[in-house]
Specification:
single chain; mainly alpha; globular; two-stranded antiparallel ribbon; 68% helix
Length: 286
């Protein structure tokens, strides 16, 4: 039977492909050509576009771990520069250009078409109650081109996983800042990366550190035994809550999709489009 480890492995394999929308120069250039000013306007417009022209409170809630003021500097201003529908088109333009540069002979191959079909089956099986970003992405029209269909399926699946991760954090009363402090203490990223990329200042970081220390999860900035157990439990719950689509796909097809995604991931990483220590925190696949 498909295990929670399968959900984690396929996320690790697929996340660098999804993240082309953030890290590839082609995605940033497409956003800027459409009128978006710089990395963060592009990020918020592209990622929030499936939700429609929502305001900062909704984006802050759905994204979970960004400082409200950081979101408020970009949302709703982005919708004056570009409509959500246009952002959906432009983000595909950027991903398409990046994929054509990075994937080479894989484009148009039977293997890539097969990967898109398998990922599409899994994405079609996501359960959306309580998962706003996953739900919004299930309503996005699936592109005809296999490499873009694959990208959209992986995006839906990673947002489904992320929504579940937020549930795992919320039930333990771990807010967005504290989640980053735990991630840094666990070695998944660094305080510098996370503070800069999510908008939390030193005061917020230190306050979250104190809250976690009062719960005996941190001691002098290091995870205690209880803190290690809590981080492990959060990750285990995240994997478990992400498992539904992969159960629908089944063991044999999950293994096949992993086999097909591995060289695509390697191509993205080898090209430098998956920055080391980035704030997403996806592990290297086993």
């Amino acid at each position: 039977m498909t295990s929670p480890g399968t959900a984690r492995r396929l996320w690790a394999l697929g996340e660098p492909l999804h993240a082309l929308i953030y890290f590839a120069e082609e995605a940033r250039a497409a956003g800027e050509a459409a009128g978006l000013a710089g990395f963060w306007q592009t990020y918020f417009a592209f990622r929030a576009a499936p939700l429609g022209p929502v305001g900062p409170a909704v984006v802050t809630a759905a994204f979970y771990n960004f400082a409200p003021g950081f979101v408020g500097k970009r949302v709703p201003a982005v919708w004056s520069a570009i409509s959500p529908d246009a952002a959906l088109e432009v983000r595909l333009t950027g991903v398409d250009a990046a994929a054509r540069r990075l994937l080479g002979e894989w484009l148009g191959s039977d293997e890539l078409a097969e990967a898109a079909e398998l990922a599409g089956v899994a994405a079609g099986a996501v359960e959306v109650p309580g998962r706003p970003l996953a739900a919004a992405n299930t309503a996005v029209t699936v592109p005809a081109e296999p490499h873009l269909a694959l990208w959209q399926a992986l995006t839906t699946l990673r947002e489904h996983r992320g929504d579940g991760h937020n549930v795992a954090l919320l039930q333990r009363e771990v807010d967005g800042t504290a989640a980053h402090v735990l991630a840094a203490a666990a070695g998944r990223s660094t305080r510098e990366w996370l503070s800069r990329a999510r908008g939390w200042d030193d005061a917020a970081w230190e306050a979250a550190t104190e809250r976690l220390a009062s719960r005996h999860w941190l001691d002098d900035g290091e995870l205690t035994a209880e803190g290690l157990a809590t981080v492990a439990a959060i990750e285990a719950d995240t994997d478990r809550l992400a498992l539904g689509p992969w159960k629908a796909l089944g063991d044999a097809r999950c293994d096949r999709l992993a086999e097909l995604l591995a060289p695509l991931r390697r191509a993205v990483v080898a090209a430098g489009e998956w920055p080391a220590g980035n704030p997403i925190g996806a592990p290297d696949p086993d």
